[in-house]
Amino acid sequence: MEILKLKAGDEEGKAEIVEYLPNKIKIEVETEKPGLLFLSDNYYPGWKALVDGKETKIYRADYTFRAVEIPIGTHEVEFIYQPESFKKGSQISLLSLGLIIFLGLILRKRK
After folding, report:
1. Could you name the CATH architecture of 3-83?
2. Mean pLDDT, the chain, integer
């Protein structure tokens, strides 16, 4: 994928986009000092960020973009889209389907 070289003052770092899918982004980051990883995709509820597998806060950057804190060293950063509305909608749909099947079986036995 694409390797980006970062420079802030005298410090350098790099970020490599390893995977870029509609609902998942994986970035390898290496930095010599703590900082923010800025992603120019829109901030939107439902995204979760993980740094080395641990959930971390996503900050709004320039009001519409997103950023996460990155400590010193080499890290794997993942952004995963898992909206609560999708989970709740799936649960309601499965419950409704189960209820329809159950009622269908009961009505079938009555005939």
Report:
1. Sandwich (2.60)
2. 86
